[in-house]
Amino acid sequence: MSPLTAWFCRKLLALLGAIVVMIAVAVPALALEPVEVSRGDVAIDLTSQVELYPNEGETFQISTVPDPNGIRRRIEVRSAGDNHSGDWAVFSLANISDEQLDRLIVAPHFRLVGSGLFWPDLGSSRIEAITPSEGFALNRVNSDDADVFSITLNPGSVITFVAELNTAELPQLYMWEPEAYKDTENAFTLYHGIVLGIAGLLAVFLSILFVVKGTSVLPATAMLAWSVLLYVAIDFNFLNQIIPLSAADQRIWRASADVAIAFSLVVFLFSYLNLARWHAQLGYGTAAWGVLLMALFGVALFDPSAAAGIARLSFAATVLAGIVLMFYLSFRRYDRAILLMPAWALIVAWLFAGYMAVTGRIDNDIIQPALDGGMVLIVLLLGFTVIQHAFAGGVYQPGLFSDLERQALAFLGTDATVWDWDVGRDRIVTEPDFAPKLGLAPGALNGPARTWLQYLHPADRDRFRSTLDLFLEWRRGRLKLEFRVRANDGHYHFMTIRARPVLSSDGEVIRCVGTLNDQTDHKVSTQRLLQDAVIDNLTGLPNHTILIDRLQSLIALSRAAPHLHPTLIVADIDRFKEINETLGFAAGDNILIALTRRIQRLLKPEDTLSRIWGSSFAIILQSQNDPDAIAEFTDALTAAIDVPITFENREIALTAAIGIASWHDDHETAEAFLEDARLAMLRAKRMGGNTVETYRPALRMLDDERKQLQGDLGRAIDRQEMTVLYQPIVKFDGQKLAGFRCSLNWKHPQRGDVSAGEIFELSRESSRSAELILYTVRQAANDLAGWQQSVANARPFVMVELSCNEMLKTSTLIELESIVRESEVAPRQIVFSIPEDIVQEAPEQAKLALQYLRTIGVGVTLSGFGNGHGSLTLLKSFRFDATYVDSAIFKYNQEPQAEIVKAFSELAERLGTAIGISDLDNEADAKAFAEAGCTYATGPIYGAAVVSSAAIRLVRENGAS
């Protein structure tokens, strides 16, 4: 390379480097645009025009905006403070007028808008100093709540300003015309004074009111008023006028004010709604909440932002909890909750506006003072609400007070106990003290109404509480309340309160005065007189008479108190007559006593268990109103009955038919209510027992309709109007059609298709089950003969289930034999399936029937194996050609358990029986059962049950052997 070329390259690189440096230096300045200022501009928001430079150190360099001549200068500014954080801000102003302009640069210390929710910015001095690109540093104007600097802009000048920041954020920066700024400050000062005056008067007035009246809600309201006054005084910079505060101190005070408002609102809500009247746990929860909030006062000393953020969240949680409580209590007609709703609605609106402000969604200068005024307005509304209650009960009605004095004198001459409930202070007093008569500590029954609950019988607590609440709600009438109180020795005393309300001038109950009498002796005598007439001698349960009486009382109470919705359950033990005939009446009596104890363990004190007839029990369920809870109770009742009972070293399996009837306005009498439950139970009986049925209005017509349907079934059998349906049975080996499983279909003229299950139930109720099965066998044999004539070499079998005990009788077996002999098919093509439960109920009879069927030459299978309490001994004792098992028996987590199926198949093969799987519904399960060694299968996967014409097509297409 020549020397000339090398010199040229060096110069070019130097030039490029200079250009890069100039561009790098000029980048901050190029992004900054001067804000034009004219004479008519009163206030300009510079916030969006300011560029922030964080962590730049104590020395800051920047290029200025070009002046009117287009000249840029590079200036360097050093920090004026000793503890500068290295944060800087730059903005530029251009005077486009032809005269000199005096302006103020204002940066407020605290701004609610955009301050944040969780770790809010609680304010601080924002600007330490402002240095212009020409001239001297700006002069600071004294101000307690903002950083204010005065500037003078010459005509046509363009000046760049560098601000030394004390914080990394600069929430707002305004430029004001001095007189306009002064007028605005004066206008806000007037507003601040009005709001502060109202807040101060409210705080003082509510405090004085507390001294005069002394109710618990007044100090809570006064505390909230003082907290709001403190918050407003800090926000309006009034507190700083009284107590000079540094910026750090103001942050602590501001956080403490937030905590105080959150704490006082919790206390107000708890005390005003009187949440601890019946539930002491709410008092403990509120106390814990309050203690946590009080701890935030200590947190505020070290981390004000964290304390303020938690307080704001607590305030929001309190408001939301108040909404839930007020809606709940309003539906229960609690006056205080209803009266508080307008003020709480304003609190909700204030909370929403505050959220929008602190998150920056609302951004203007009016929202902060508006929220302060709204807070004072909230206290004003709460004060009005509290004052209404404070002065409502201040004056007794003169005539009524005289009556109370006269009654008090009368009590002194008797042995009666005065029961006095001061509703306002929630304090009950008995005179003379009744607690020692029960062996309790003196004064144990004196105090809040909820203290009585711990001594009351558990079954009476809810009634005691709800009765007093309803008495306060109705505000009229006389109170008569009977309940049981536990004495120190553990025995319960029957007590009666008779009282009347003392009303204030506006109709509110402020006192309840009456007598407290011990009715134990009277109750015991009455119970002894009534016991023989109303108690079942065997079980000790209420009988039919007392059940009707209690039902009638509940119906009357349910009309007066909508929350009372009793449910009536009738349960009848299945096959109880057979147990008495087989094992004797002693076994039956022991079973009834054992079932009584089991059922009683499921009931609560307010529920009633009664033996109404024979093996039937009735339960009045008051403790549960929710349908899901009633269903859970019914499941528990069924499970309790199903547990076998041991008698003379023999286990007796029990089931029951259960009917349920819920209360509704149509129940005029208890007898009608009981009849509804009985009809539901009878419906469960017709369904085969061991089931639960709920009453429906249509059940009233079921008896007549059922009898009509039974007659129609008999005529259909006689006229041969029913159709036999055939469901394919497949042999796993080659997936060949092996035969059909028979069922009946009946097309009723009015009801349409009647299911096979209902047909069997109707036949059982009308004692025509055997006749129906014989009809099925005869029709299936005839159809099978027709198939064989149409399809040569087709040898499918038909399987009919002998699903009733009558089919095991010799007379019925003889009829079966005659049908088989008369048919034109081989006996082996007719297969009879005997259900497992039939074999278990009459094993000896089943064994004889099996031997008889073997002599005929028909096939015999066992169906439903594993659905009951069967065991493998059945397969050993009875030689069946095949055993059909439901596919669900061998599944776990919806998957067939191949090892179990295979082991069962091998065992069944050694016992000489094939395995058939019922109700198969997918190919994967079919493959798994086939690989495990099963022989036959039936289910939806192989097709639904079809009529004879469709079945013959299947035989023709697939063949059968």
From TrEMBL:
Residues 479-531 form the PAC domain. SMART domains: EAL (SM00052), GGDEF (SM00267). Residues 706-959 form the EAL domain. Gene3D superfamilies: 3.30.70.270, EAL domain, PAS domain. The keyword Transmembrane applies. The chain crosses the membrane at residues 190-212, 224-243, 255-275, 282-302, 308-331, 338-357, 377-396. It holds the Pfam family EAL. Keywords: Membrane, Transmembrane, Transmembrane helix. Residues 564-697 form the GGDEF domain. This is Bacteriophytochrome cph2. It comes from Martelella mediterranea DSM 17316.
